[in-house]
Input
Amino acid sequence: MQPVRQAAGHEGALEDESRDIFVKRALPKEIAFYQHVQAGVSRIPEGLDDEAYEQHPDAPTADLAGVIPVFMGTLMEHESGPGNEAGDGSTLSYEDIKQRLNRNGQGVELVTESSAQHNLLASLSKPGPVGQGQEAPLHPSNASIVLENLTKGFIKPSVVDIKLGAILWDDEATPEKQERMKKVSETTTSGSLHMRVAGMQIYAGKEATKEGGDPERGIVPSDSGYIEYGKKYGRSLTEDDISSCLNKNMFPVSHLGYDRASALISVIIQELLYIRRVFRRIEMRMHSASVLIIYESDLQAFDERLNNQGEEGVGPLYQAKIVDFAHTSLTPGRGPDLDSIEGLSNLISIMKGWEM
Output
């Protein structure tokens, strides 16, 4: 397992070398959310026609499952000791863990059965240093969730993390955190547009990164051709300049070319419109959830995938998913999450203004 290079979010997430799975510490509320969605999907009988499916009470939950990462199970930290071995006495590897994951949507609890796994999860469940966006969880958890790795299959993935909503805290937040998050919302586009750039990792090509960045503003290029746009960048954007700045940096025409950038904008808008339709049918509150947009930046792979979409064995060209449910609650009877929907609608409107 190795650390994940993330566009935004708390540090400490891991992925396997093949980028099949994504493991991160999780609070009980996030685990419960994924388990609720999983249970809803399991209650829908197979073979329903479209009309019967739409009438099923769990159809909205099943639709939600399609716009979030696939939940594979949980890893629970247990004390290492006698019995924490495979049947032949050898320790279990992460490949063993992957094989034990039920990939048919029926998540299972996985136990750390080797001392190496124990040590890994023990480090994951230690509170990180407070500050620089890393806060110790209100209710520490010894669990990690195992999800599909959304970057699997991409050669040079560009990743955009857009945080949704103006209300960035839930009812369990301390008064101090609520006040701090209110100030963040009031002084950024979270408050004015109900959405904010949390971070981006965009492949712009090695020539583009030679120009240098703007570390003070959170723009940091790398020798690999990626430009990282950090938290400072997202918080520096205003309602007046967010569209022009994102139009320039999110899908860099200097690298992608006009036609590829135009195609990406159009198809991702359609994905976001579908996610919004799903949101309108779900009664929940998502505080600080994000829409994660990923697209292929390797030009040869991009062209091959664009021309062969739908064919077996062809890798992904793009995807958009909702992530980060640590502060999400089910709210039956209270209607959909209008705060997050407004943020998503504003993002769609901004991107529609870029259509070429």
